């Protein structure tokens, strides 16, 4: 399946939507893709600015955000004035969108190999990850070019709407996408089950304070189970829309197309929030922010208030709040 912009254009090329509906689809696509572009660019900028974030685990997140950023960029750009740029727009968007969900599989693999298999050699696999992600994305993009013709409509390029072209789109995009979803789901299930078992075994020998810390850590770890839901939520409507369009090519569903375009274009934003905005990123930003100094001053002033005034003006010291989530790879695992 082509990326969101290509998908919208392939729908409109068949003449199934009125001009007003086309403008709505275009606005949804540009708006959602812009949010993803901003979110992904923020994670990329954090990685480049903060040296303490340049660990192997976050390096994978950086490449994920980089892929999302270019995927969103090429999805946003409009109709090229000639055929060369039409090809470049479509193929580039397809390449980076495939690379995006492939990077999520490398993150899942790293967690599984570190937590479940207790291997410490994941950093040695960096070059293999690049070969796997960029190589697979390139192969899928080249295969997708077979049997396709291109044109333009309004602000989009679109690919051929024949059954052969649609089948190739499905094979080169949705097949690896749902393969990645299944792999991520199975991998995170094993990681979470492993850590749950370890926590239950440790409950009997830890004191109460450590048990509370363990429950806090497990609450954060269980959030990993939601990561596969990002791809599911982003592309379920696209999958249904592509299947419907394949079976009923002349009967377009406008609402389904809006959901398809909107959620698919938000994939980069979802990834940047789930994978990128972890405690390490927030801590790096906070340490360089003048806000932390203001909070310290406010805390000192507040401590001098009479007890009665404190009841009327409660204050929460953000810097002393217990960290309720952990990095991509738990510190206890990294220390092994």
From TrEMBL:
Originating species: Zostera marina (Eelgrass)
Membrane topology summary: Multi-pass membrane protein
GO biological processes: adenylate cyclase-activating G protein-coupled receptor signaling pathway; cell surface receptor signaling pathway
Gene Ontology terms: cellular component: plasma membrane
Keyword field: G-protein coupled receptor, Membrane, Receptor, Transducer, Transmembrane, Transmembrane helix
Intracellular or extracellular location(s): Membrane
Pfam families in UniProt: Dicty_CAR (PF05462)
Top-level taxonomy: Eukaryota, Viridiplantae, Streptophyta, Embryophyta, Tracheophyta
One example GO MF annotation: G protein-coupled receptor activity
Segments traversing the membrane: 27-48, 60-79, 91-111, 131-147, 167-191, 224-241, 253-277
InterPro entries per UniProt: GCR1-cAMP_receptor, GPCR_2-like_7TM, GPCR_GCR1_put
Protein name per its UniProtKB record: G-protein-coupled receptor 1
Domain G-protein coupled receptors family 2 profile: 25-279
Domain of life: Eukaryota
């Amino acid at each position: 399946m082509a990326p969101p912009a290509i998908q919208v254009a392939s729908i409109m090329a068949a003449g199934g939507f009125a001009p007003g509906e086309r403008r709505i689809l275009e606005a949804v696509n540009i708006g959602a893709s812009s949010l993803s572009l901003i979110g992904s660019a923020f994670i990329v900028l954090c990685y480049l600015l903060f040296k303490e974030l340049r660990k192997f685990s976050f390096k994978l997140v950086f490449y994920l955000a980089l892929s999302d950023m270019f995927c969103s960029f090429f999805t946003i750009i409009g109709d090229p004035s000639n055929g060369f740029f039409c090809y470049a727009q479509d193929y580039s968007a397809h390449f980076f969108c495939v690379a995006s969900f492939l990077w999520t599989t490398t993150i899942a693999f790293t967690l599984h190999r570190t937590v479940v298999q207790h291997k410490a050699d994941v950093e040695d696999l960096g070059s293999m990850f690049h070969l796997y992600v960029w190589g697979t994305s390139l192969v899928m993009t080249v295969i997708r070019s077979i049997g396709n013709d291109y044109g333009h409509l309004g602000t989009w390029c679109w690919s051929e709407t024949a059954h052969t072209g649609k089948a190739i789109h499905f094979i080169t995009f949705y097949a690896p996408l749902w393969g990645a979803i299944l792999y991520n789901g199975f991998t995170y299930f094993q990681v979470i089950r492993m850590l749950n078992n370890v926590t239950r075994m440790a409950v009997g020998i830890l004191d109460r304070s450590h048990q509370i810390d363990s429950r806090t850590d497990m609450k954060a770890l269980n959030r990993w189970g939601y990561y596969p839901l990002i791809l599911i939520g982003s592309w379920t409507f696209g999958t249904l829309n592509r299947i419907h369009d394949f079976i009923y090519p002349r009967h377009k569903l406008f609402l389904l197309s809006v959901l398809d375009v909107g959620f698919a274009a938000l994939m980069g934003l979802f990834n940047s929030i789930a994978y990128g905005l972890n405690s390490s990123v927030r801590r790096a930003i906070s340490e360089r922010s003048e806000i932390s100094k203001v909070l310290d001053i406010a805390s000192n002033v507040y401590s001098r208030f009479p007890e009665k005034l404190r009841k009327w003006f409660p204050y929460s010291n953000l810097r002393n709040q217990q960290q309720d989530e952990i990095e991509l790879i738990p510190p206890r695992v990294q220390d092994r």
